[in-house]
Amino acid sequence: MAPKLMVVGSLNYDVTLYVDRFAPPKTVVRRLTRYLGGSGGNSAVAAARILGKEAVVFFGAVGNDDIGRKHIDALRGEGIITDIIRVIDGVESGQAFVAVDRNGNTAIYSYYGANTKLTPEEIDEKVLTYLEAVQYILITNPPLPTALELVSKARDLGKTIIWDPGAQSKHGLEVLKPVLEKVDYLAPNEGELLTMTRTKDLLKAIKHVQEVNQRLKVLVKRGEKGSLLANPLSNTLIHVNAVPPEALGYKTTSTVGCGDAYVGVFAAFLILGYSEVDAMKLATCAATLNAAYEGPRGVPPKQALLKWFEACKVLIQVKEEKCSNLANRI
Ligand SMILES: Nc1ncnc2c1ncn2[C@@H]1O[C@H](COP(=O)(O)OP(=O)(O)OP(=O)(O)O)[C@@H](O)[C@H]1O
Ligand SMILES: [Mg+2]
User: Fold this and answer.
1) What separation in angstroms does the CA of 33 have from each of 40, 220, 264?
2) 57 CB-contact burial (10 Å; exposed 0-12 / middle 13-18 / buried 19+)
3) Is the pTM of this model over 0.90?
4) Which residues are near ligand 1 (CB < 6 Å)?
5) CATH code of residue 271
6) How many whole angstroms from 26 Cα to the centroid of ligand 1?
7) Distance 59 CA to ligand 2 centre (A)
8) Which domain holds residue 87?
9) What is the pLDDT of residue 330?
C-alpha cells in the first residue's frame, strides 16, 4: 500500500516529575513517568491509528542510543514506515523533562538533541520519493530551514501541507513568511499564533497571517476553549468546543500531546475524505480521549474512536459564521 501521509518533526523522551512545589533547594519527586513523545512522533502515531498500517511515513532524527531504538521500535509497532528516520552518532536523542506541581503547573526543560540534526541535507532522493507518493505532509517542529525546504518541495509536487509551528512561532511573521506562503493549513495553538503575530487579539492574529498568504486556512487549537478554523476561501469561521474527559466519565489525566493528537487525527480524516468540520469534530473527540490518558499518545484506533464519537458528538457544538471581511470584525 502506498503511504498517504508524511509526518516530519521531533521525537522526544518525556520524563515527567511530579513534585509538591518547584525549586526549593531539595525537592522530592513523588512520582515519575517516562513516555515516548515529541510532537512529530505523537502526531504520526495519532494519524497511523486512524489510517492503519504503512499509511504514514515518518521523517525525523534520533541518537544512536536506547531511546532512539525504542522510538523506532514503537513507531514500527504502530505500522509507521521508519526507514527514513536518521540515526545520528555522537548526540543523544531528544528529551523533555517536565515538572508538574500539586496545582498542575508545569515547567518544561527541553533537550532537542538529535532533533536538531534533521538538516535540509537529510532530504535525499528517498525522502523525496516518499514525498511524491503521499497526498499530505504534516510538518510539526523540524529545524526551520528543513521545514522551508520541505514545504517548497511539497508545493512543487502539489501536496497538501499542514504546518503546526509549535515553538518556531517565536520567530515571528517576518522570519516565518517563506514557510507560511507555501502551506495550506497553519495549525498553531492560540498562544503560539499570538506570539507569531505579536498581537493579543485572536482575529487580528488570523488576519495578519492571512495577509502573508491569502489562501491560508488557520486551524487554532485553544485548549479547553476548543478549536477554530478560519477559511479565507469560503469566508467562514468554524468554532468547535472542547469536550472535557469528565463528560465521558473520565478524569483529565494529562493534556500533554492533545494538540498533536488533534492535528494527527484531523489530517487523517481529511485524507479519508471527511469534511473539515467533521475532521475537527473527530479530532476534538480524539483529543479528549488523549487528555484522559496519562501519556501523550492516547488516541484509540479508528473503529474505537468512531464508537467513542457516538457518545461524544452530542457534546460537540459547531458554530459557523460568515466573515466576508475579517477586518470588519476587528
Ligand atoms: N483540558 C482539556 N479538556 C478537553 N479537551 C482539551 C483539553 N486540552 C486540550 N483539549 C483539546 O485538544 C485540542 C488541542 O489541544 P491544545 O489546544 O492544548 O493544543 P497544543 O497546545 O498544541 O497541545 P500540545 O502541544 O501539548 O500537544 C483542543 O483544541 C481541545 O479540543
Ligand atoms: Mg502543540
Assistant:
1) 20, 29, 24
2) buried
3) yes
4) 189, 221-224, 226-227, 242-244, 252, 255-260, 262, 284, 287-288, 291
5) 3.40.1190.20
6) 32
7) 18
8) 5-10+39-92+114-329
9) 46
